[in-house]
Design goal:
Elements: H1 2-37, H2 61-97, H3 104-113, H4 117-126, H5 128-139, H6 150-153, H7 162-181, H8 183-191, H9 193-216, H10 227-244, H11 260-271, H12 275-300, H13 304-317, H14 321-325, H15 341-355, H16 359-375, H17 377-401, H18 407-438, H19 450-457, H20 471-492, H21 497-518, H22 522-528, H23 530-548, H24 558-576, H25 578-590, H26 598-609, E1 618-620, H27 624-631, H28 648-660, E2 666-669, E3 689-694, E4 700-705
Parallel strand pairs: 1-2
Antiparallel strand pairs: 2-4, 3-4
């Protein structure tokens, strides 16, 4: 009877999921139609941004409206209706179990569920239909997806056959699941369980070290003229270098990627600051964050192959591994680890809280969320919202289950939720008090969310989500089905610990997915997909264990087979590239003292030759922040760095300060090092300065005031 109940319950789950998908599609069409009927004011004024970025303005108001509405509506509706549906099934099952004779369960199932014995048998035979439909919906969008240059060019080479790789991983997953289902596989797994755990950690550790040593740790000799240095790395190093020079964020300059430089300041005060030390710290944060996520996988997943596959997948989709494999070695520190670290750590803290929900552990999760929000608002706020969402959902589950029996549990959750809000307010207030006490000057509150308003609000560098079958649909589907599984578990047992973790991962992943919704590029999809892959591992392991235990029918093996196939497919390129990582390590070691780019090395040497660390100099060149960090200089001008200069008002303010004030030294890039955001050659407006020297390649000029300028104004 238990197996019949589980099959009926599981069939209902998959039918519920398919229904939710249909409702989501219909709602998207309806919301699109309603949005078109509304009057909309002018969304953007292109004149507010510098001319060279105006072509990158691609606002997505309709897509954003539809997505955010559905992202808020569908989880709430699925949670409430799922709780009613699954609790009703559970009540009927409990009523059947109360009967003493063997024939009573079938009779009660017939009376309460509305089926007879023949229909129950038929339902078991046909249970594979909704399961197959769910699998197809989640698996089909991966067909044709490829980890190659096609992610950037959108053009697949004739030699690339991702369908063959996907089929190969599918066959391997089928073989593994059938072997696990067999008696031999069961005995061998029990015997080798401890060895499998050790092997999985060793593989993870070695692979992470290979990745870090190959290309994640860099120095000033690694800098080149490539776009990833001046477009990505520069926006990270400029605020860090200026904070280390004594400036304060939100007072002297903004930081597009959050207040993390203020948190790193005490660390670099102890160790000293350089490009190498910053990247080394990022490597440490990488090991800690990946270890946090994998520890949860290790604790929740019993199958050794799923553990190993999960480790490879986590390394593959995080910290820019895919980008490096396709020939674009961009560490992209603003996501790895800046945006990734605290959500990854939050999973570990929440896992421990769900196992033993004490007030101190709840406070730890709240502190992770608050620090993560101040560190980087984009990803940190998802932790705060996800934790609050799970707490509210858990309170509703307990309230609807038994108002009297779970009174103390509801009171505890209410206190945790209140403490979560208070912690957020107090910690945020303390951070801003620290900023007030650090300097005497007004705080520019608009800088706190300025980048979000510019990028997400105005649509700068945005890309629309593809409407053809794409893996992003599978990601959202995984979050939805994981949430439904959590609701079903709560309906049976309001204190189900795995349901807490599934719901938290679903909400966290959905929040991080907003990053992709804004700029829907393949590489951004890979960056935000890691929570869904963790959910695939957890769900595949649970279904595989249930089938082996006889709780679910054999046709449910199709679910872990599809999940394992996706994990193998995502981790397979990394497995084939381990030798490439080894060769890159040798190359990196052999060239450790050789400049990667003669022009960049000459510009840095030129700046150092005409300044000393601590000097207040203006640098108007590409790689501005990197040069400030390497040379130890201080910018005498407040405001955003050149890598973050998108607004015309910021550019005009910078040019006005250059004209109105006199600075002791100015370095101006020209030719390949000129700054497009400025729109002009700064030397044209610096009439009171003489060109004192130029570098060997004539890409950098050193300007001094014509009059004696010991006391340069700031």
């Amino acid at each position: 009877m238990k197996k019949q109940y589980q099959n009926i319950n599981s069939v209902t789950l998959h039918l519920f999921f398919i229904t939710a998908i249909i409702i989501t599609l219909l709602s998207s069409f309806l919301l699109t139609f309603l949005y078109g009927k509304l009057d909309h004011p002018s969304l953007i004024d292109a004149s507010i941004v510098v001319p060279w970025t105006r072509k990158a303005l691609q606002p997505e108001p309709q897509e954003r409206f539809v997505f955010l509405t559905l992202a808020l509506m569908i989880p709430i509706i699925s949670f409430l209706t799922g709780l009613v549906v699954f609790r009703g099934i559970n009540k009927r099952h409990n009523a059947a179990r109360k009967c003493m004779n063997l024939s009573a369960p079938i009779g009660l199932l017939r009376d309460h569920v509305g089926v007879n014995q023949r229909q129950i048998t038929m339902a078991e035979c046909l249970a594979g239909i909704p399961v197959l439909a769910t699998t197809v919906l989640l698996y089909f969008p991966f067909i044709g997806y490829n980890f190659s240059r096609a992610l950037v060019t959108n053009h697949r080479l004739p030699s690339e056959q991702p369908e063959r790789v996907l089929m190969m991983t599918l066959l391997f997953a089928i073989g593994w699941c059938l072997w696990k289902y067999s008696r031999i596989g069961h005995f061998n797994t029990v015997r080798l369980a401890r060895v499998g755990v050790m092997v999985s950690w060793v593989i993870l550790g070695i692979t992470v070290l290979l990745q870090i040593c190959a290309w994640r740790i860099r120095s000033e000799l690694s800098m080149t003229q490539a776009w990833d240095w001046y477009a990505h790395a520069d926006g990270i190093f400029y605020p860090v270098s200026q904070v280390m020079a004594g400036k304060t964020l939100l007072v002297d300059l903004p930081s597009m990627y959050g207040l993390f430089p203020e948190f790193l300041r005490p660390v670099f005060k102890l160790t000293g600051f350089s490009i190498f030390k910053f990247t080394a710290l990022c490597a440490i944060l990488q090991m800690l964050s990946l270890g946090s996520v994998y520890w949860v996988v290790h604790c929740c997943v019993r199958d050794s192959m799923i553990r190993i596959a999960s480790g490879f997948v986590l390394i593959m989709v995080t910290f820019g591994t895919v980008v490096w494999l396709i020939g674009m070695p961009d560490p992209y520190y603003q996501y790895w680890p800046i945006r990734f670290f605290w959500p990854a750590v939050a999973i570990l803290f929440f896992y421990h809280y769900s196992n033993k929900p004490t007030s101190w552990r709840a406070l730890a999760v709240s502190m992770v969320g608050v620090i993560g929000t101040l560190w980087n608002m984009d990803s940190g706020l998802t932790i705060v919202v996800a934790f609050a969402g799970v707490l509210v959902a858990k309170w509703v589950v307990l309230w609807s289950a038994d108002r009297h029996a779970y009174r103390n549990a509801r009171r505890q959750i209410r206190n945790v939720l209140l403490g979560h809000a208070v912690t957020f307010v107090i910690a945020g207030f303390s951070m801003f008090v620290y900023l007030f006490m650090k300097v005497d000057g007004p705080i520019h509150w608009d800088w706190l969310v300025g980048s979000q308003q510019l990028l997400y609000g105005l649509g700068l560098y945005m890309l629309p989500m593809p409407l053809y079958p794409s893996p992003w649909m599978s990601l959202l589907g995984i979050y939805l089905i994981a949430l439904i599984v959590a609701v079903r578990s709560w309906a049976v047992n309001p204190h189900a610990k795995h349901a807490d973790l599934l719901s938290f991962l679903s909400l966290l992943g959905l929040g991080l997915f907003v990053y992709y919704q804004g700029r829907s590029h393949h590489l951004n999809l890979i960056a935000v997909c890691w929570p869904s892959l963790v959910l695939i591992a957890l769900l595949a392991d649970r279904v595989l264990s249930a089938v082996r235990a006889g709780v679910l029918s054999k046709q449910y093996l199709i679910l872990p087979i599809a999940g394992l196939s996706v994990l193998f497919f995502c981790g397979f390129p990394l497995l084939l590239s381990l030798d490439k990582l080894g060769r890159q390590i040798m190359t990196t070691y052999e060239h450790r003292n050789i400049p990667a780019d003669d022009v960049v090395n000459d510009e840095l040497s030129f700046i150092r030759g005409h300044s000393t660390p601590g000097d207040k100099c203006v640098i108007l060149s590409l790689r501005q922040g990197l040069y400030f960090a390497a040379a130890g200089l201080v910018s005498p001008i407040s405001g955003p760095g050149l890598a973050e200069m998108f607004l015309k008002s910021d550019r005009d303010a910078l040019l006005d300060k250059l004209v109105q004030n006199r600075y002791p030294c100015i370095f101006v890039g020209s030719g390949s090092s000129a700054v497009p955001a400025l729109g002009i050659d700064p030397r044209m407006i610096l009439q009171d300065y003489d060109v004192a020297a130029s570098n060997q390649y004539d890409t950098m000029s050193y300007l001094r005031p014509r009059q004696q300028s010991c006391m340069g104004q700031t």
